[in-house]
Amino acid sequence: MKITVAFNETMPLVGTSTPVHTTLFDTSPEFHGTDSASSPMEVLLESLAACSMMDIISILKKKRREVVNLTADVEADRAEDHPKVFTAIRILFRLESPDCTMEDFERAISLSIEKYCSVAAMLRAGGCSIEWSSELVLRRWDE
């Protein structure tokens, strides 16, 4: 894997992983940014959510469950001293599905967070705890 991040006289920074995939990074004016994009630490939390959600969707689809909507709300605590790493993360996963059970949903989340999601594994290896909770909305189309 190879990426490039560039600064071109003003924020935001532009990260490029392929010629067509870019990510913007910024910070607050206090640190000479324009607050026009997510900070690197926010992107890390977004990456955790996205990594886990991709696993969850894949696991549920393998079980032939329909995923209509899936969201993750993420909150994190950081150390007070530099480098101000994440110390604890809480994720609330919300799934809308006409046929998924809570057991299937929670099993998919657990497999992702504990086994498959490499972002979660890297954060845990750095001493960060990750807790999760879930909400399931069963929505049938004939209702």
UniProtKB/TrEMBL annotation:
Query: Sorted alphabetically, which InterPro entries does this protein's record hold?
Result: KH_dom-like_a/b, OsmC/Ohr_fam, OsmC/Ohrsf
- Per its UniProt entry, which superkingdom is the organism in? Bacteria
**Coiled-coil stretches noted in the UniProt entry, renumbered to this chain:** none
What is the name attached to this protein's record? OsmC family protein
Organism of this sequence: Prosthecochloris aestuarii (strain DSM 271 / SK 413)
Print the organism lineage: Bacteria, Pseudomonadati, Chlorobiota, Chlorobiia, Chlorobiales
